Amino acid sequence: MTIIASADGSALGNPGPAGWAWYVDDDCWAAGGWPHATNNQGELTAVLELFRATAHLDDDLHVLCDSQYVINSVTKWMPGWKKKGWRKADGKPVMNREILQELDAALTGRRYRFEWVKGHANHPMNEAADERARAVSEAFQNHTPIPTGPGWTRGGAAAVAPVPGLRSPAASAPLAPPSAPSQPDLFDFDELSGELDELTPESAGWHEITLTLSPEEHARLIGRAHDHGLNAEEFLRSLI
């Protein structure tokens, strides 16, 4: 089976309030964003989140994308950048390195192909992704709730696992003052108290915890981390 999905990004001001979105149909899509990021960061993140949302599946992925930058980064430039230590031919650092590294990891072992579609040319799926990415940008601009979408609704819940130690795309960009509406806590630490009480001195070394997040939860985590100037791992550690 082949999954056909579109991915798009948006930034008002570029950089400015920004959003990303992937779209399969009206019942299967997701979106997120940041108070301050670039259009390219939105475009890359849309593709990254699409691969994350479908990581639990063994289907081919056909990605419709109107960004030549994204397509060329994935299909042409990335191997050379990696060989040069994530530097371009002129020796300068590759822009958006952190998200490109996360995307490189997400592509490993996947069967996929990209198809370029002209943006703003009435392509139904591209228009749907564009509208949702822009809606997130406008929500950050207007301080209104972020329309994150239903997420992946085909074949079970998606397992989303951010790559440890890598900064999210807008983490190095200057952030606008926190503007997103208050949201429920990501975790209830009271539920973890029983597990923590069971730790013995012999088991009190390093512990690895794996979290499975929905696309909405992941977007909320990244947004909160950005608000604190941290990456996702640093933000989670700060909660302990």
Automatic annotation (TrEMBL):
- Which note does the record give on the cofactor? Binds 1 Mg(2+) ion per subunit. May bind a second metal ion at a regulatory site, or after substrate binding.
What SUPFAM superfamilies is this protein classified in?
Answer: Ribonuclease H-like
Q: What one GO molecular function would you report for this record?
A: RNA-DNA hybrid ribonuclease activity
Q: Which reaction does it catalyse?
A: Endonucleolytic cleavage to 5'-phosphomonoester
Q: Which UniProt keywords apply?
A: Cytoplasm, Endonuclease, Hydrolase, Magnesium, Metal-binding, Nuclease
- Report the cofactors: Mg(2+)
Question: Can you cite a GO biological process for this protein?
Answer: DNA replication, removal of RNA primer
PROSITE patterns attached to this UniProt entry: RNASE_H_1
Indicate the segments forming the RNase H type-1 domain, all copies: 1-138
Name where it's found. Cytoplasm
What is a single Pfam family found in this protein's UniProt entry? Answer: RNase_H
User: Keyword RNA-binding on this protein?
Assistant: no
One GO CC term on file = cytoplasm
Tell me the residue numbers annotated for binding Mg(2+) 1. Answer: 8, 43, 66
UniProt binding sites for Mg(2+) 2: 8, 130
- Where it mainly occurs, coarsely classed, is cytoplasm
Q: What is its EC number?
A: 3.1.26.4
Q: What highest taxon heads this organism's lineage?
A: Bacteria
Cited function? Endonuclease that specifically degrades the RNA of RNA-DNA hybrids.
Question: Quaternary state and partners of this protein?
Answer: Monomer.
Its family?
Belongs to the RNase H family.
- Indicate what this protein is called per its UniProt record: Ribonuclease H
Upper lineage is: Bacteria, Bacillati, Actinomycetota, Actinomycetes, Micrococcales
